[in-house]
């Protein structure tokens, strides 16, 4: 089965080519897409995640919620076995954005430039400590009116397991931050689990309200 994945060097990427495919790819992928219901417009970005399992499970979760697309930033490859084949059913775009081929450190100049361009076409939702509580998401959603195009489609940003989302990206205009309430010991939820919780609550709140 054809994979719906492509890789872009972020230094040469533009808004116009972020979702571009060759004609042959489009023809082949249309056979897969014809089997999938109309997608929700939301997307998710894995920002420099190190764990193959985390990347794979986020792709799997995004596919299960019928989201539009997954972006994987900061690494060249991940183990596709962790998606249980879901990379065939949702577009996955990988952007290399590290300081060197063998580096795990993000090129924040490139990333910030990409995020600034994204704020023109998406509403960026940073899933990170110190934000609006997820339990209030239904209240926040009342201000998000897709039917009248009052906001741009949402893109959820999931930061790395070790460092989360860099501070240099948290001050961009037009973003907002969501946090999951915690009641016990421990610093944070596993990143793929956190995405599943946020995605479920978002779609539950959106469909109910």
Structure, described:
By secondary structure, the protein is of the alpha/beta class. 28% of the residues lie in helices and 19% in strands. The chain contains five helices and seven strands. The radius of gyration is 17 Å and the shape is globular.
Looking across the biggest beta sheet, what order are the strands in? 1-4-3-2-6-5-7
How would the global form be characterised? Answer: globular
Largest sheet: 7 strands, parallel
**Can you count the beta strands?**
7
- Unreliable segments of 5+ consecutive residues: 12-26
Order of helices and strands: EHEHEEHEHEEH
Beta fraction of the residues?
15-25%
Question: What's a concise summary of this model?
Answer:
The protein has 209 residues and is α/β, with parallel strands linked by helices. 28% of the residues lie in helices and 19% in strands.
Which short descriptors sum up this protein?
single chain, 209 residues, alpha/beta, seven-stranded parallel β-sheet
SSE topology:
Blueprint: E1 5-9, H1 23-33, E2 43-47, H2 52-64, E3 69-73, E4 92-96, H3 108-118, E5 123-133, H4 137-141, E6 154-158, E7 176-179, H5 191-208
Parallel strand pairs: 1-4, 2-3, 2-6, 3-4, 5-6, 5-7
Helix pairs in contact: 2-5
């Amino acid at each position: 089965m054809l994979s719906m994945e492509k890789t872009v060097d972020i230094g040469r990427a533009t808004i116009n080519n972020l979702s571009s495919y060759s004609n042959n790819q489009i023809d082949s992928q249309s056979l897969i897409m014809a089997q999938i219901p109309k997608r929700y417009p939301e997307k998710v970005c894995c920002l420099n995640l190190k764990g193959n399992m985390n990347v794979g499970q986020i792709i799997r979760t995004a596919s299960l919620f019928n989201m539009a697309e997954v972006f994987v930033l900061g690494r060249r490859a991940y183990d596709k076995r962790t998606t249980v084949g879901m990379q065939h059913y949702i577009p996955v775009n990988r952007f290399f954005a590290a300081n060197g081929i063998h580096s795990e450190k993000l090129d924040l100049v490139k990333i910030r430039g990409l995020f600034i361009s994204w704020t023109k076409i998406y509403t960026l939702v940073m899933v990170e400590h110190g934000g609006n509580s997820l339990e209030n998401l239904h209240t926040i959603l009342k201000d998000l009116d897709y039917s009248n195009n009052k906001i741009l489609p949402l893109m959820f940003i999931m930061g790395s397991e070790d460092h989360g989302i860099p501070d240099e990206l948290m001050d961009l205009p037009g973003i907002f931050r969501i946090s999951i309430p915690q009641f016990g010991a421990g610093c944070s939820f596993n990143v793929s689990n956190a995405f599943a919780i946020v995605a479920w609550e978002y779609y539950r709140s959106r469909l109910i309200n």
